[in-house]
Structures are given as C-alpha cells and as structure tokens.
Amino acid sequence: MIRINCPFCGTRDHSEFSYGGDGSIDYPALDATKEAWHDAVFMRDNICGVQLETWHHVHGCRMWLKIERDTLTHEIHSVRPAHPGLAAALSSEQEAGQ
Amino acid sequence: MTARRLDTGGRIDRTRQIDFRWDGKTLTGFAGDTLASALMANGESVLGRSFKYHRPRGIMSAGVEESGAIVTVGEGARREPNVKATMQELYEGLSASGQNAWPNVRFDLGAVNGLFSRFFAAGFYYKTFMGLPPFEWGHGTGLWMQYEKLIRKAAGMGTASREADPDTYDHAHGFCDLLVVGSGPAGLNAALTAAKAGRDVLLVEQDFELGGVYLNDPEAEQQRLDLVEAVRAAGVRIMTRTTAFGLYDDGTAGLLEKVTDHLSRPDPHLPRQRFWTVRAGATVLATGALERSIAFDNNDRPGVMTAASAQAYLNRFGVQPGERIVIATNNDSVYGTAAELAQAGAEVTVADYRREPSSETPTGVTVRTGMAPLSAIGKSGLQGIELAREAGTSWQKAERLDCDLLLVSGGWSPVVNLSSHRGAKPVWDAKEACFLPGETSEPIFHAGSSAGIWTREACEASGIAAAKKAMGQAADTLAPGGWTTPITPLYEVRLPNRQSKAFVDFQHDVTGDDVRLAQQEGFVSVEHLKRYTTLGMATDQGKMGNVIGLALMAEALGKDIPDVGTTRFRPPYTPVAISALSGRNVARHFKPLRRTPLHDWNLRYGATMTEAGLWHRPWYFARQGETIAEAYVREAATVRETVGICDVSSLGKIAVQGPDAAEFLNRVYTNGFAKLPVGKARYGIMLRDDGMVMDDGTTWRLGETEFLTTTTTAQAGKVMVWFDELLQTRWPDLKVHVSSVSDQWAGVSIAGPKSRETIAACLETGEDISNEALPFMGVARVRLKGGIDALIARISFSGERAYELYVPAASGEAMMDLLWPTAEALGGCLYGMEALGTLRIEKGHVTGVELDGRVTIDDAGLGKMASTKKPFIGSALRQRPELLREDRPQLVGIFPKDRSQRFNGGSILCRPGDPEGFGDGWITAVTHSPALGHWIGLGYIAGGVDAWQGTAVLANDPTRSGDVEVEIVSPHMVDPQGVRMHG
Amino acid sequence: MTRFSAWSVFKNGLTGQKGWSRQWRDPEPKPHYDVVIVGGGLHGLATAYYLAANHGVKNIAVLEKGWLGGGNAGRNTTIVRSNYFRPGNREFYEHSLKLWENLSHELNYNVMFSQRSHISLLHSPGAIDAAARNYNILRRTGTPDAEIWDLATLKRAVPHLNYSPTSRFPIMGAAVQKRAGTARHDAVAWGYARGADKHGVDILQQCEVQGITREGDSVSAVETSRGTIRAGKVAFAVAGNTSRLWTMAGLGKLPIESHKLQAFVSEPLKPLLDQVVVFGIGGAHFYISQSDKGGMVFGGDLDWYKSYAQRGNLPIVQDTAEAAMSILPCLGRVKLLRHWSGLVDMSMDGTHFLCKTPLSNLYLNAGWNYGGFKATPASGWYFADLIANDRPHEKIRNFDLKRFERGLQIDERGAGPDPKLHG
After folding, report:
1. CB < 8 Å from A in window 278-297 of B
2. Which label site among B251, B784, C75, C214 has the fewest CB atoms less than 10 Å from its CB?
3. Among positive and negative, which fits the CA dihedral B261, B267, B270, B271?
4. Where is the Rhodanese domain positioned along the sequence (chain C) (predicted)?
C-alpha cells in the first residue's frame, strides 16, 4: 500500500485515491492547434524515476493533488494541492505556523 | 520409522485426548498436537504421494517447509486440499485424508509412473506430445489436447470442493509503530525492547504458541515464560496463529490470522480467518531459519526428515520419532538433538561429513566423521542408510547402517522471504553456506537466525539490537555465524556411475539429475532452472530445495553460487485461502448495490429491477400475467396516449455554482451556455480531450451564478471527477464550485399528453405550468402538496410533453404518493427502463449504447450542437482527418423490410450477399414500437441515411438468429418535427 | 541439434538423457550484426526467428539484459485469443491465432497451446447484444468458432460457476471463442529461442543496452554491457522499458504509459476448470484458467497507477480475490500460492505499435497493453516483415505512431486516451 499524505486529510492508503496521470503536462488553450493538443493528450515522457503526477482523493476530500513519486520504488517525495491557489495558501499557512 | 508416543514430556496435554480421523480410521492424539505429530505418534508413516512419480512420502519436517505430509482436511464444502499436516493443529473430530493417490496413499496405482521415470526427465513434455504434423495449416493442436487431458488428470495435487465455502472471512486493518514477525528468541526480545521504550508493538506468530525454538527446549521453558510475561506486561499486542505473508509498499504487511481452524465446533459468529492489512512504522523480521536436506539417493523415503524436526517431535510433542537413528550432518546444529534422542532411549549415530566435527561428542551418541548419506534403503519404511566417504573429487561407498529414522541437516537457510518481497536481494554467505538478507533502504530489520545468527544468546541480543535500530537508535549489528566448528557445505552425495533418485525439490520430484539436465540444455540461470525443472514452484515455494538446486547448478557450471543467481521470493510466504483475501465482498456483496430514493416504492408498486452499472433501476412494471414484452409495450403506448411516470433519480446531478459557472459550462460543452437565460434548461454534449463524445445531459440555469447539470447514470461519477480535475488543475482561475448532488434529489420523469395535468393536480398553490408559463425547456421552482419543494424542468427524452421533477431525496416517496394516484386516475402508468428505451429509440435519442466512446458528435447526428463560435474541450482534436471522413458510420433508424419481422441488437448491417468482413454498420438497440406497430432499431451505418436511400440492407446476426432484411431510415422515427413535445 | 520427438525422448530415457544438447548457444557478441533486436522476450525472439526463417536474414543478434524470457514472457496469465474486433486488430490477432495453432510443429517445441475455449460471461440483455456485435464481426472475419451461448449451454460446459440468481450480477449467457485457450509461456520463449538459434541467430543474454549511438537520423551502434555492437538495423521489443530506450535513442515522447499488472496462481488442484473464464462487470475485471500443472492462474485489473516496480500491492490482490470468489465460490478453501506482477506498456488507445520510427533504421514494437502474449507469433511475423522490407505490411499500416495525429484510435473498449483504462 502506498501511503499518501493528503494535505487536507492526513496520511491515507493509496486505495482512497485515484491516479490521474502525468502532472507535468501543460494543457494548451482551448483554441490552440490540434498539433499542440495531440502532444498534450497523447504523448508522454513515461519517466522511470521521480515524476510529477496528479492524483485525486476521490474517496476523501475530492481534491486533486500533485505528487512527486518515484515510479520505480513508489516512494513519494512531495504532495501538494494541484490548485495553485490552494497550494500557495497552504504553504503560507505552514510558514505562519512555523 | 517406528515412532511412538512417550509417556511423559512434551507440551501436549495428555489429559485432553482428541479423536480424529485419518483416511477413514479413527485415531487418537492430544491437545497440543499437530496433525503430523499425532499421525507420527500413531505410527502412520506414509502420508502423501509426490507430484510426478507418486512416490510414498512421510513427514519431513515440523513446519511450513513440509513437503511430504501434504493432506486434505475436512469434508464436503469445507474440504481443504494441500494442507501441511505439520501446520494443522489437531482438534476433536478433525478429518484428514491422503491425496494425489488412488486408491490411497499407502497403495497408489499412480506409482507406476515411477517405473517410467527415466523417460520423465525435466522438461520432457516440451519435446513430445506435439502430435502429428498438421495435414492442414491451422489444425495442429488436436493430438496435444488429447494428451493434455491425461496429463491434467495426473497432475494437480488435492481436489477442491465443488461447493461454495460456507464459512465467513473478515478483513481487518491495523497500525503499529513496530511489527515484529516471529516470537522466537530474537522476536520476543525485539518486541520487549521496543514496547518498553513506549512503542506500539504488534507481535505476530504463525504458531499457536509463542516461543519459536524455545518451544523445543524444555530447559528454556522458564526463560520463555518470563519473556512472554514481560512482553505482555509491556503492552505488546500479540497475535498467534497469524502469518505475515507479504510485505508491501510503505510498511504495509499482509497478515493471515487463522481464527477457528483449530476448533472443533467454532463459534458460528466468528470468521474462519482474518486477512489483516497492517501499516507499520518499522518491521523486525525474526522469522528464523529452515533446515536444508541433502540430495542423495532415495532421500525422500518416509523415515527421512530434517534433524531439528526430530527435536520438535521429541520435546514439544512427546513423540520418540525412531528407535535406531542416524543423523547425517555437515554442521554443529544436530548435536543437541542427538543427545536428547539418545537420552530418550534411541540408538543414535551421527554421520558428520566434516573431518573435525563438534568439539564435544554427547554421551550415548556414536559419531562417524567424514561420512555422508549415499542411499536410503527401504521403500515405505526405512531400513538403513548407505554412507559414503569422499575420495578425491568423488565419493566411494563406505558402509551401511541400519536405522528406522534418518535425520538430515545440510545446513540452514535464513527465512529472508519477507524482505525479498521488498526487493532486498539475498546475499550469499560462503562461510555460513546460506543466503543472508539483502540490503534495503526501508525500515526493515532482520534479527536472529533469519540473519544467519545461530546461537540463542546472539539471537536474543540481535532482537534487542534490531528493535533499537527500528527505533532509530544506534545498535551494533551482530555478525552471522556462531557454530564452534564451521559448516562444510554439502549439497549432494552420489557415486559417479550409479543411477540415483536424489531429490532436490521433493514435492515436484525434481532430482539432482534434472538440475544437471537443465544445465546440459542451457537453462543455467536460476530463473530458467526453476521454470524448466519446476524446482521451487510447489506449495513450499522452494523452502526446502532452492539452495540445493542452486548449488548443484553452480557445481555443474563450475561457478560459485552467487554467480548463478539468487531467487527472488514472492508473496505469500505460505499459501493463503482465496476466500480470506476476498473477505465478505463476495456473492451478493461483491460490489455495492446502488438504490434510488424510490427503490422501495418502485418495488412496492410491482417493479422488476435491472442492472444499470451498480444501480438497480425499474425494468418494467408487469401487471398480472404480463410478460416483459407485453409490459413494456403497454407502458410505452400509455406514455404516448396518457401519462407515465419513471424513476430517473440515478441520473448524475452536479451543482455548478459561482461567478464563472457559465463560462465553465461554455468550455465543457460543445454548445453555448453563456447566454442560457435563468429559468431555462439546455441539452448539452461534452467531449473528451480527444474529441469523442463523453456524455450528454441537460443543464438548468437556476440563477445567474447557479446551474444544475445532469449527466447519464453511467457517467455520473466520471463527469464529476472530470469537473473537479478541470477546475483544480487546468482552470484554477475560474471561480466555480461543483458539488455532486446526485444522492440529494429524487427525480422522476412524467411524460405524456396528460403529464401537465398530473403535475398540476399535485401542486400546492396552483402555480402556472401552462405551455406559456413553463414552455419546452423551461425550469421552475414549485411546491407540491404537503409543502414539498421541487424543481421542475420541461424536458423530454420520450418525445412527449414531459417534465422532470426533482424533490429532496427524503420526500421522494411522498412525491410518488401524490403523483401516482393522480396519474393512475388519468389512465397513466409507471414505466421502466425497457419502455424508456422504446420511447427514446422511437425518437432517435442516444444513450450509452450509441455513445460508446468511439463516436464523434457528428457520428451521433448532433453535429449542429458543436459551436463554431467558441472553443471547447475536444474542439481541437475533433478536427483530425479520420474524424471528419464522410463515410464514417452515422446514426440511423432501422425498420424491418417485412414489418412483421424482428431483428436483434448487435446485428451487423451489410449489403445482401456480403457475409464477410466488417460490414457497413451495426445495430445498437431494438424495440417493438407501439407507435409504429412494428420492430424498429437504432444503429450506425457508413455515410448515414443519405448513403442508403433505397438500398437493400441486411441485419446479419450469425451468432444468434441469422439474417433479416432491413431499411435504413432517419433515426427520428416518431414525430420527427417534435410537435408532441412542444405542445 | 536433436530433433524433439517421442522417439528422441524414449531414446534419451534409455541412455541417461545424454543426447540432449544446449537448446540455444551462448555466443560471444560479434562486433557487427545486420539486425540487432533489443529485448529477448517473446516478441524479440519471435522476430528474430521469423527474420531468419521467413526472410533469410543471416546476421542477427537478440540482446537481453537479463535472461531470455525473464520479463513478461514468464509473468503473464498465458491466455491466447483473437476476439478483438476493431479493424486492424481483428486480422492481426486472427493471424496470430492461426500461427499459434501450428506453433509447436513450426518450432518443434511443444508450446502446449490448448484450445480449450475462452468464455466471457454476460450479465444483461444489453451486454449480450454488445457481445453479439463483436462476435458477429468475428464470425464474418474468419473466426467461425465465435459463439454466443445461452445459460443452459454455459452450465453444461462450466458447471461450477456461481449461477445463483441472487448473486450480485447473475450470469445470463456467455460469448465464447472455442479456438482460444492457453499456452505454456516459457516454452514459447524457449521454442523461439531454439528455433532462432538453429537459424544462426546469436542470443546474447546478460547484455544490457546502455546507450544508442546515432549518426544523424539513423542508429549506428548500440553500447552494451558486453561492448559496442554495430548494427545495420535496430529493433526495439522491450515491453516495460520502451520509453527508457526511446530516450536513450534521443527521441522524445511516446504515446505509452508503463503500468503494472499482477498475476496469481493457486496451489495445484485436480482438474476443476477446463476453459478460460472471463468476468467483467460493475468495474470488475477478472480472468481465470487452470494450468496443466493444476494451479488456478488468474488476474484482474492494473494496480491503477503508473509504475515500473515489478511488485504489486494488496488492494488489487483483494479485488481479484473478490471476483474469483464471486464467480467460482468453490475456490474458498483453495489457497493462493504466489502473486507477482509484470510491466505493461499501456498505450493511448489500447492498441500496440509495430512501426518505423523517426530514425531511418530503427523499428519499434511496443504498447501491447494486456495483449502481448497472445500477439507473440503475429508480432514477430509482421515485425520481421517490417524490418526485412523496411516498409509496413498492409495489415499493420495503422499500428504506427502517427495514427493519433490522423484521428485513428483503435480503441476496443472506447475508453479514450487514458492508458490505465485499456486493461
């Protein structure tokens, strides 16, 4: 069981979450070319090692998370909310706490 | 073997006699016995038959590595095949029998296989049974499959019950700071150390008693009791009869707790077993070591077993396993056992392969040095052992000793299985002749003999050290070893030119010759060796044989053992019942059942239910004597004539709220939502990123910044996740909040010419829902009689004047109690999925059958809903050339040419006389249309209706009914202008 | 090399098995090969065999970083079937099945292809119609053994399934392919290796590719743990490692994501189940058969997250056991003996790639999803054809990397561009 430290709920089994996909993809604007969309939708680095990826805490807070995880060892290096505003708010809260 | 129960000694309770059955005979044992010890005490020696040659096999060990005494326990639905008798606690009424033998294990006709064993070398089946070369290309497997039938019958071991297992199994979850696996000297000390330091410790032991090797040593009993007491007092949580069968990511362990397997009449409220998922901060593996055998001729005979197991039978179970005993060894570990057996009255000779054996020869024991076992004599009962002496690089026959029990110790293999599950590669230690646990960066620490530490004191110390390390404290690592005289590796003894049956893997009948044949044929890596010979693939997973096999391969190659490789162990450590893993989520409870708020109401009013994903939805409401076909046709006709009510609560409902809600919907749907007025609904299609249709549904604008979006039942969860993802990962700047309100609302569709009348009669204050006040696609908030607040939208899936009415889930039944009497009085009906299907097929409305994930919006005939004024999800990739082809299959309606005929969903549409190939299209759904009076269907065909005007088409259904001539028509088969629904 | 036959087994039985020799050589790498195939798995070995046997290519090496057949070859659940129905897949897998039917004879190696039937259970009238569409296509395209069975027929053939009308998903019928079945996976690897070796192919084990040397838009050599090997043509057939090699070759992204798929085997039992049975509904996915040794071999879903770790986690073990018990409740006291996992390259539409690449002499065999084992013979056959002729055979022209740009997704499940959903 991979244990994921959800920033909102605490550490939980990975079975509460669902894996999204490559978190490094920058989806193009809706009016971008089909070539740009092709690359975003179909092409992957498929990294063996630490990759940025998205997970959804579907059986928890339903927040999407960005996680740095080693795809070979499953070791998790970082977890943050996928929503940049929430991520910023959380980190400033943590700083304030310290 | 002439084993007998001693009058005193052992841990068994002689005051509690236990009757049990073996192959139909009633025998007696005592509380504290295992099935193996009780059978041994009763003088039963042949307990099993081997896999391939059906050789007689007896007890070979006293533990999980058992490869001889593998039996079937229980009867009928509770029959469990392949039970290791050494691991089965005895209980009153236990019924066990031999397996893989006919008529029984003592006399087995299958033993005839042994006569042909010279032809059954490793992998022989890859070289023959291929049958004759085929006379026709593509028919080459016929003869093999005839041979295969015979092979399958001969293979296998026990026979599984054909009945469902009547017992229950539980899943449980646990957490701890430290998990300690094994309760021997190392494990108990590790648990105690950590618990005293305030850690939450979970100690698991596969045995029914704590103590490990202490249990086989009467002199250590007080020490054991003190330790166990201290461990309990320190607050360690203790689980006996519990095996840690696997280690997984992030400190997770899988445990199997056997709750009632030892009970004669279990409490019916208890599960038979529990499967635990435990998340541990750190893990100490004090899993011990297993004694190896040595390969020599007939080393599998009943009466040959590991040396340490004799100690267990003697000291723990009070069974003297033999009278004249020879112990063949290459290490120090047997001398204590030899002394104890001699003390118990046996005549004991140790044949020690080493020239300089242990410094002290125990009293009453004869020691022959430089001797190794060459060939066991006797078939079902051991009569003696031929010994050999090394002569240069070979062996020569030395002497024969008579014996009724031969104990063998070829060295010890630390149990490194669990750390190996984590990818820690075991490391060969040439000095101790064993694999030691490999390195891991995870907080997993081996202690005791599982780390190759042989003396008890050092094991105890290593347990303390491991616990300290697990707590992040400094501690010395204890070196492996500890014997006075080092082990001299010995794996096989054979004369150069003598045929022998020297087994490496007892269960699978893999011999030393098989290993050499594998080498001769190039299967030299350990993985090839295992696969080619099946070494280590039996129910003990190589616990007894793997190291010997590896050593023999190394010798054949002239390499060192590490150069041949190491085997990676896979979970489970010992086999786990499939039902324990499945727990209670089986049969009716296999997957959750979703019920709408109107579920019980529907059942009360005669609904027959059908599966819709995880939902049960009303299929049809049969009146007395009606078949399903009669019921749905009546229901559909009634909707078009008067009014019908259908539960649509399972549709997904998402509240989309916030200043940017309209913009969000505008991006998600192909059509525009920005200008949708408050109080109006709009049908929308959403695409996936790749431009294929994802889902459809209506969205209701309840306020300037508030929408209610409905989805199909099947895609409700997926769409909700998708909205979350888009808002949180792609468009975080949009100020929108989405929440699933699917379960908060009960919803019905009220359809038919009298739908307005029905609803109006149920309104509390007589709100105006006339065509002017609530036109097609209008949305309003209304109040039903009894003060039930409701949302109403004039939406039609049936093509009739129709409304969807949503009330809070708790008021669902109250709503039905209002609506239904009113509708019934107007001649209306309740209708289910089948009639819903009829109505929508008549209208050419699509569902999941048509939107199967491979369909574009144009294919579905809804291309005009794709905005050209704004981009949306999927708008870029839907422009790819293959998706724009004119000859893509497009949605059409289908009539049988002869209107009296019917056809099937799933039929292929093709030109008459074209029985091959992919055809031109297919039929997605069919129904008998009461409006048209004949069967109709929806489907897709290349180019759509226009391409097939006046062309004959066949609905081809070769797997079922054959061919029906059909006509391709517009999918809008009833009321194509939509007059009825706008009226 | 000794020809395998009943006679040779008999003769060697009498003479102490002395007559058998290595099933393939263990040669030293040569400095140059006309074709270097990276990956000594089933597809790589099959490709080498057909290149030599069908196209007469002489100077071929297969490079394997470990031991041949040590990856997915030995980790799959050995199911062979051709019930794919999308154009392209349909012809490809049917051709594969035909090659399977004659493979033991072709290779003179008993791969134990047992055509014991593949039975997909159906649970609703809609599911029966959907299956009928697919199996009607099979019938129309050279697979007369595709059938839709009613409940009575199914009960006669497979008596021990859970036919209770109160089970969560009562069984209503089945879609059956009778020529489908199972084969002995290791034997396929060894048979192709022996066959390739007989044609002079050098199988280089413990030979890990560590670098790809390019000259402009072509590959000139591969750097291996056993030295530099120059190559006329290079072919990748490295399921689970495709993206790593692709990066090594200096190429960009691929429409592939690597996932892990677990597999399970029980203790050996006397015959209990004669067919391959597949069960998929309510989000579950499960398949089971009984090996000739007697073990129940089964599997289910991916672990659902991308992974290069060849080990699984407990949630899927549990899910799979739940499905097993729900469909075969008599397995209750049968014990799981071993579970393991393999790496599968999941593609964006669930269909593989057998194609040329941006480099002129580099060829790609990848993205087999769940289908790699059954595809082995055809994969080798067409890949060899592609390499030998430097152009895709008409039958594989849509298995290229550009198909998504064209808008072609060969999507059997209609799951869309999310690799994990194509299991």
Report:
1. 279
2. C214
3. positive
4. 35-79
